[in-house]
Amino acid sequence: MTLGPVMVDIAGCELTADDKALLANPVVGGVILFSRNYHSLKQLEVLVKSIQNVREPRLLIAVDQEGGRVQRFKDGFTILPAMRRFGEVYDTDQKMALNLAQQCGWLMASEIRSTGIDISFAPVLDIDKGVSSVIGDRAFHSDPFVVGKLSQAFVAGMDEAGMQATGKHFPGHGSIAADSHVAMPVDERSMVDIEMDDLRPFQFMVDAGINALMMAHVIYSRVDPQPAGFSSFWMKTILRDKMHFQGAIFSDDLSMEGAVIAGSYIQRAKISLETGCDMILVCNNREAAWEVVNSLQGYENPASSLRLAHLHGKLAVSRETLVSEPRWKKAKSLLAKYVDDPSLNLLDPTNYNS
Predict the structure, then answer these.
(1) Do you find a cis peptide bond into 310, omega within 30 degrees of 0?
(2) What predicted TM-score, i.e. pTM, was given to this entire model?
(3) pLDDT tens per residue across span 222-276
(4) In 3-state terms, what secondary structure has residue 107?
(5) How far apart are the first and last CA of the chain?
(6) SS3 for 222?
(7) Who's near 5: CB < 8 A, 6+ residues apart?
(8) What tens digit of pLDDT does each residue of 269-295 get?
(9) Which structural domains are found in the chain, ordered by start?
(10) Which of the residues are catalytic?
Protein backbone atom coordinates (compact mmCIF):
# COMPACT_ATOMS: atom_id res chain seq x y z
CA MET A 1 0.00 0.00 0.00
CA THR A 2 1.29 3.47 -0.89
CA LEU A 3 0.39 6.84 0.60
CA GLY A 4 -2.90 8.14 -0.75
CA PRO A 5 -3.52 11.76 -1.81
CA VAL A 6 -5.83 12.89 1.03
CA MET A 7 -4.86 14.34 4.42
CA VAL A 8 -7.64 14.41 7.00
CA ASP A 9 -8.12 15.48 10.61
CA ILE A 10 -9.53 13.76 13.71
CA ALA A 11 -11.94 15.10 16.30
CA GLY A 12 -10.31 14.50 19.65
CA CYS A 13 -7.36 13.27 21.69
CA GLU A 14 -7.73 9.61 20.76
CA LEU A 15 -8.87 7.69 17.71
CA THR A 16 -12.53 6.74 17.37
CA ALA A 17 -13.79 3.77 15.39
CA ASP A 18 -14.74 6.13 12.56
CA ASP A 19 -11.26 7.69 12.63
CA LYS A 20 -9.64 4.28 12.32
CA ALA A 21 -11.89 3.30 9.43
CA LEU A 22 -11.12 6.53 7.58
CA LEU A 23 -7.36 6.35 8.17
CA ALA A 24 -7.23 2.73 7.01
CA ASN A 25 -8.69 3.71 3.64
CA PRO A 26 -5.95 3.53 0.97
CA VAL A 27 -6.95 6.95 -0.43
CA VAL A 28 -5.86 8.58 2.84
CA GLY A 29 -2.16 9.35 3.13
CA GLY A 30 -1.90 11.67 6.09
CA VAL A 31 -3.37 13.21 9.22
CA ILE A 32 -3.14 16.83 10.38
CA LEU A 33 -3.41 17.54 14.11
CA PHE A 34 -4.89 20.65 15.73
CA SER A 35 -4.99 22.13 19.23
CA ARG A 36 -8.09 20.07 20.02
CA ASN A 37 -6.02 16.91 19.57
CA TYR A 38 -3.56 17.84 22.31
CA HIS A 39 -3.97 17.44 26.05
CA SER A 40 -0.51 16.43 27.22
CA LEU A 41 2.80 15.18 25.90
CA LYS A 42 2.08 11.61 26.96
CA GLN A 43 -1.38 11.69 25.39
CA LEU A 44 0.06 13.08 22.15
CA GLU A 45 2.72 10.39 21.97
CA VAL A 46 0.05 7.69 22.43
CA LEU A 47 -2.17 9.29 19.77
CA VAL A 48 0.68 9.52 17.27
CA LYS A 49 1.64 5.90 17.88
CA SER A 50 -1.96 4.80 17.38
CA ILE A 51 -2.09 6.67 14.05
CA GLN A 52 1.20 5.11 12.97
CA ASN A 53 -0.12 1.64 13.84
CA VAL A 54 -3.21 1.95 11.64
CA ARG A 55 -1.37 0.74 8.54
CA GLU A 56 1.93 0.31 6.72
CA PRO A 57 3.57 2.34 5.32
CA ARG A 58 2.65 4.63 8.16
CA LEU A 59 0.59 7.70 7.48
CA LEU A 60 2.25 11.10 7.23
CA ILE A 61 1.42 13.12 10.37
CA ALA A 62 1.49 16.93 10.24
CA VAL A 63 0.78 19.98 12.39
CA ASP A 64 0.99 23.76 12.05
CA GLN A 65 3.67 24.70 14.59
CA GLU A 66 5.08 27.85 12.99
CA GLY A 67 5.54 29.94 16.12
CA GLY A 68 3.89 33.21 17.05
CA ARG A 69 0.14 33.17 16.46
CA VAL A 70 0.14 29.75 14.82
CA GLN A 71 1.32 27.17 17.32
CA ARG A 72 -1.04 24.25 17.92
CA PHE A 73 0.80 22.71 20.88
CA LYS A 74 1.76 25.01 23.74
CA ASP A 75 1.79 23.44 27.23
CA GLY A 76 4.88 21.24 27.31
CA PHE A 77 6.32 22.89 24.21
CA THR A 78 8.52 25.97 23.85
CA ILE A 79 6.51 29.07 22.97
CA LEU A 80 8.19 30.29 19.80
CA PRO A 81 8.58 33.84 18.48
CA ALA A 82 6.70 35.11 15.46
CA MET A 83 8.99 34.98 12.43
CA ARG A 84 8.81 38.77 12.08
CA ARG A 85 11.03 39.09 15.16
CA PHE A 86 13.92 37.55 13.23
CA GLY A 87 13.37 39.98 10.38
CA GLU A 88 13.55 42.89 12.81
CA VAL A 89 16.83 41.58 14.19
CA TYR A 90 18.15 41.10 10.63
CA ASP A 91 17.82 44.84 9.99
CA THR A 92 20.50 45.53 12.60
CA ASP A 93 22.42 42.25 13.00
CA GLN A 94 22.26 39.81 10.10
CA LYS A 95 24.45 37.14 11.67
CA MET A 96 22.40 37.09 14.87
CA ALA A 97 19.12 36.91 12.95
CA LEU A 98 20.27 33.97 10.85
CA ASN A 99 21.43 32.13 13.96
CA LEU A 100 18.11 32.81 15.72
CA ALA A 101 16.14 31.53 12.74
CA GLN A 102 18.22 28.36 12.52
CA GLN A 103 17.96 27.67 16.25
CA CYS A 104 14.20 28.26 16.11
CA GLY A 105 13.79 25.84 13.21
CA TRP A 106 15.82 23.23 15.05
CA LEU A 107 14.00 23.70 18.36
CA MET A 108 10.53 23.59 16.82
CA ALA A 109 11.30 20.55 14.70
CA SER A 110 13.13 18.70 17.49
CA GLU A 111 10.23 19.06 19.89
CA ILE A 112 7.67 18.01 17.28
CA ARG A 113 9.79 15.08 16.08
CA SER A 114 10.22 13.87 19.68
CA THR A 115 6.50 13.04 19.70
CA GLY A 116 6.73 11.09 16.43
CA ILE A 117 5.03 13.71 14.23
CA ASP A 118 6.66 13.95 10.81
CA ILE A 119 6.23 17.55 9.65
CA SER A 120 5.20 21.02 10.69
CA PHE A 121 3.82 23.11 7.83
CA ALA A 122 6.54 25.77 7.99
CA PRO A 123 8.07 28.16 7.16
CA VAL A 124 5.89 30.92 5.75
CA LEU A 125 7.60 32.27 2.61
CA ASP A 126 5.07 35.04 2.04
CA ILE A 127 6.26 38.64 2.00
CA ASP A 128 4.72 40.97 4.56
CA LYS A 129 3.30 43.93 2.65
CA GLY A 130 1.52 45.34 5.69
CA VAL A 131 -1.94 44.60 4.27
CA SER A 132 -2.65 40.95 5.16
CA SER A 133 -3.97 40.31 8.67
CA VAL A 134 -3.77 36.54 8.25
CA ILE A 135 -0.08 36.72 7.24
CA GLY A 136 1.26 39.76 9.11
CA ASP A 137 4.00 38.81 11.55
CA ARG A 138 3.97 35.21 10.36
CA ALA A 139 6.20 36.48 7.53
CA PHE A 140 9.90 37.06 8.13
CA HIS A 141 10.16 40.41 6.36
CA SER A 142 8.95 42.72 3.59
CA ASP A 143 12.14 42.22 1.55
CA PRO A 144 12.09 39.04 -0.60
CA PHE A 145 15.85 38.60 -0.23
CA VAL A 146 15.64 38.70 3.57
CA VAL A 147 12.70 36.28 3.56
CA GLY A 148 14.79 33.89 1.48
CA LYS A 149 17.86 34.10 3.70
CA LEU A 150 15.97 33.69 6.97
CA SER A 151 13.86 30.88 5.55
CA GLN A 152 16.96 29.02 4.44
CA ALA A 153 18.40 29.30 7.95
CA PHE A 154 15.13 28.15 9.53
CA VAL A 155 14.92 25.17 7.16
CA ALA A 156 18.54 24.26 7.89
CA GLY A 157 17.58 23.98 11.56
CA MET A 158 14.58 21.81 10.72
CA ASP A 159 16.79 19.56 8.62
CA GLU A 160 19.22 19.10 11.52
CA ALA A 161 16.28 17.85 13.58
CA GLY A 162 15.18 15.35 10.92
CA MET A 163 12.16 17.25 9.58
CA GLN A 164 11.44 18.24 6.00
CA ALA A 165 10.13 21.78 5.46
CA THR A 166 6.92 22.89 3.73
CA GLY A 167 7.08 26.46 2.42
CA LYS A 168 3.80 28.34 2.07
CA HIS A 169 1.65 29.89 0.55
CA PHE A 170 2.70 29.66 -3.12
CA PRO A 171 2.87 31.95 -5.09
CA GLY A 172 2.41 34.46 -2.23
CA HIS A 173 -0.42 35.55 0.08
CA GLY A 174 1.10 38.69 1.57
CA SER A 175 -0.27 41.29 -0.86
CA ILE A 176 -3.97 40.66 -0.25
CA ALA A 177 -6.00 41.96 2.69
CA ALA A 178 -8.69 39.25 2.51
CA ASP A 179 -8.23 36.07 4.58
CA SER A 180 -8.73 32.94 2.45
CA HIS A 181 -10.11 31.07 5.47
CA VAL A 182 -13.24 33.22 5.31
CA ALA A 183 -13.13 34.99 1.90
CA MET A 184 -11.97 34.58 -1.70
CA PRO A 185 -8.87 36.79 -2.01
CA VAL A 186 -8.06 38.30 -5.40
CA ASP A 187 -4.62 39.67 -6.23
CA GLU A 188 -4.79 41.98 -9.26
CA ARG A 189 -1.06 42.42 -9.84
CA SER A 190 0.64 41.48 -13.08
CA MET A 191 2.79 38.37 -13.50
CA VAL A 192 5.89 40.56 -13.78
CA ASP A 193 5.18 42.16 -10.39
CA ILE A 194 4.61 38.77 -8.77
CA GLU A 195 7.79 37.34 -10.29
CA MET A 196 9.89 40.29 -9.16
CA ASP A 197 8.57 40.11 -5.61
CA ASP A 198 6.56 37.19 -4.17
CA LEU A 199 8.11 34.39 -6.24
CA ARG A 200 11.67 35.22 -5.27
CA PRO A 201 11.70 33.55 -1.80
CA PHE A 202 10.03 30.47 -3.28
CA GLN A 203 12.60 30.25 -6.09
CA PHE A 204 15.37 30.76 -3.53
CA MET A 205 14.09 27.83 -1.48
CA VAL A 206 13.40 25.63 -4.51
CA ASP A 207 17.01 26.15 -5.57
CA ALA A 208 18.08 25.29 -2.01
CA GLY A 209 16.23 21.95 -2.25
CA ILE A 210 13.05 22.42 -0.20
CA ASN A 211 10.98 19.23 -0.34
CA ALA A 212 7.40 20.52 -0.07
CA LEU A 213 5.30 23.60 -0.77
CA MET A 214 1.70 24.51 0.04
CA MET A 215 -0.53 26.41 -2.37
CA ALA A 216 -2.46 29.61 -1.66
CA HIS A 217 -6.24 29.84 -2.06
CA VAL A 218 -5.81 33.14 -3.92
CA ILE A 219 -6.88 34.19 -7.43
CA TYR A 220 -4.22 36.14 -9.34
CA SER A 221 -6.75 37.58 -11.75
CA ARG A 222 -4.35 39.02 -14.33
CA VAL A 223 -2.53 35.70 -14.57
CA ASP A 224 -5.14 32.91 -14.24
CA PRO A 225 -8.87 32.93 -13.38
CA GLN A 226 -8.53 29.96 -11.02
CA PRO A 227 -7.15 30.06 -7.46
CA ALA A 228 -3.53 28.93 -7.42
CA GLY A 229 -4.36 25.63 -5.71
CA PHE A 230 -6.63 24.70 -8.62
CA SER A 231 -4.41 26.03 -11.39
CA SER A 232 -2.28 23.92 -13.71
CA PHE A 233 -0.61 27.15 -14.81
CA TRP A 234 0.73 27.86 -11.33
CA MET A 235 1.53 24.29 -10.34
CA LYS A 236 2.71 22.77 -13.62
CA THR A 237 3.78 25.61 -15.92
CA ILE A 238 5.38 27.81 -13.27
CA LEU A 239 6.28 25.63 -10.29
CA ARG A 240 7.24 22.40 -12.05
CA ASP A 241 8.39 23.53 -15.52
CA LYS A 242 9.80 27.01 -14.99
CA MET A 243 11.00 26.89 -11.37
CA HIS A 244 12.02 23.18 -11.55
CA PHE A 245 10.43 22.23 -8.23
CA GLN A 246 10.58 18.46 -7.71
CA GLY A 247 9.09 18.12 -4.23
CA ALA A 248 5.56 17.52 -2.94
CA ILE A 249 2.75 20.03 -3.49
CA PHE A 250 0.05 20.35 -0.81
CA SER A 251 -3.27 22.06 -1.24
CA ASP A 252 -4.39 24.34 1.55
CA ASP A 253 -7.52 23.14 3.35
CA LEU A 254 -10.32 22.48 0.85
CA SER A 255 -12.80 23.49 3.56
CA MET A 256 -11.64 27.11 3.45
CA GLU A 257 -13.78 29.79 1.84
CA GLY A 258 -11.07 30.40 -0.73
CA ALA A 259 -11.69 26.90 -2.13
CA VAL A 260 -15.48 27.19 -2.54
CA ILE A 261 -15.17 28.64 -6.06
CA ALA A 262 -14.03 25.23 -7.32
CA GLY A 263 -17.41 23.62 -6.54
CA SER A 264 -18.39 20.72 -4.29
CA TYR A 265 -15.83 18.96 -2.14
CA ILE A 266 -15.59 16.19 -4.71
CA GLN A 267 -15.02 18.72 -7.48
CA ARG A 268 -12.45 20.60 -5.39
CA ALA A 269 -10.54 17.39 -4.76
CA LYS A 270 -10.62 16.27 -8.39
CA ILE A 271 -9.53 19.62 -9.81
CA SER A 272 -6.80 20.10 -7.22
CA LEU A 273 -5.26 16.70 -7.95
CA GLU A 274 -5.66 16.97 -11.73
CA THR A 275 -3.99 20.38 -11.85
CA GLY A 276 -0.93 19.39 -9.84
CA CYS A 277 -1.37 18.78 -6.11
CA ASP A 278 0.18 15.66 -4.63
CA MET A 279 -1.86 15.78 -1.42
CA ILE A 280 -5.10 17.61 -0.62
CA LEU A 281 -6.25 18.62 2.87
CA VAL A 282 -9.87 18.14 3.94
CA CYS A 283 -10.25 19.40 7.51
CA ASN A 284 -13.01 20.12 10.04
CA ASN A 285 -15.74 18.39 8.01
CA ARG A 286 -15.84 14.61 8.43
CA GLU A 287 -18.78 14.16 6.06
CA ALA A 288 -16.83 15.95 3.33
CA ALA A 289 -13.71 13.90 4.08
CA TRP A 290 -15.67 10.66 3.53
CA GLU A 291 -17.22 12.08 0.34
CA VAL A 292 -13.81 12.91 -1.06
CA VAL A 293 -12.24 9.61 -0.03
CA ASN A 294 -15.10 7.58 -1.49
CA SER A 295 -14.95 9.54 -4.75
CA LEU A 296 -11.24 8.79 -5.16
CA GLN A 297 -11.32 5.00 -4.73
CA GLY A 298 -8.78 3.46 -7.08
CA TYR A 299 -6.85 6.71 -7.50
CA GLU A 300 -3.12 6.14 -7.99
CA ASN A 301 -0.22 8.46 -8.63
CA PRO A 302 3.09 6.69 -7.96
CA ALA A 303 5.14 9.87 -8.43
CA SER A 304 3.08 11.70 -5.81
CA SER A 305 3.31 8.78 -3.38
CA LEU A 306 7.09 8.77 -3.73
CA ARG A 307 7.34 12.52 -3.13
CA LEU A 308 5.17 12.21 -0.01
CA ALA A 309 7.14 9.24 1.34
CA HIS A 310 10.26 11.42 1.39
CA LEU A 311 8.54 13.63 3.99
CA HIS A 312 8.51 11.05 6.77
CA GLY A 313 10.55 12.32 9.70
CA LYS A 314 14.00 11.09 10.65
CA LEU A 315 16.40 11.29 13.62
CA ALA A 316 13.75 11.58 16.35
CA VAL A 317 14.96 11.45 19.95
CA SER A 318 12.79 11.02 23.05
CA ARG A 319 11.60 14.11 24.88
CA GLU A 320 13.66 13.03 27.90
CA THR A 321 16.81 12.90 25.78
CA LEU A 322 16.02 16.17 24.04
CA VAL A 323 15.49 18.25 27.18
CA SER A 324 18.78 16.99 28.60
CA GLU A 325 20.72 18.33 25.62
CA PRO A 326 22.66 21.58 26.17
CA ARG A 327 21.55 22.83 22.75
CA TRP A 328 17.85 22.54 23.68
CA LYS A 329 18.39 24.54 26.85
CA LYS A 330 20.48 27.15 25.07
CA ALA A 331 18.06 27.56 22.16
CA LYS A 332 15.09 27.83 24.51
CA SER A 333 16.81 30.55 26.52
CA LEU A 334 18.04 32.39 23.44
CA LEU A 335 14.59 32.60 21.83
CA ALA A 336 12.62 33.46 24.96
CA LYS A 337 13.45 37.18 24.77
CA TYR A 338 11.88 37.43 21.30
CA VAL A 339 8.46 36.02 22.23
CA ASP A 340 5.64 38.56 22.22
CA ASP A 341 3.12 38.93 25.04
CA PRO A 342 0.37 36.43 24.04
CA SER A 343 -2.28 38.87 25.23
CA LEU A 344 -1.40 41.04 22.20
CA ASN A 345 -2.47 38.35 19.72
CA LEU A 346 -5.65 39.63 18.14
CA LEU A 347 -5.97 36.60 15.85
CA ASP A 348 -6.20 33.13 17.34
CA PRO A 349 -6.60 30.71 14.42
CA THR A 350 -6.96 27.71 16.74
CA ASN A 351 -8.48 25.36 14.21
CA TYR A 352 -7.35 27.07 11.02
CA ASN A 353 -5.12 25.14 8.77
CA SER A 354 -2.09 27.08 7.58
Answers:
(1) no
(2) 0.94
(3) 999 999 999 999 999 999 999 999 999 999 999 877 678 878 999 999 999 999 9
(4) helix
(5) 28
(6) coil
(7) 27, 29, 273, 277, 278, 279, 280, 296, 299, 301, 304
(8) 999 999 999 999 999 999 999 999 999
(9) 1-63+286-310 (no CATH), 65-285+311-337 (3.20.20.300)
(10) 181, 252
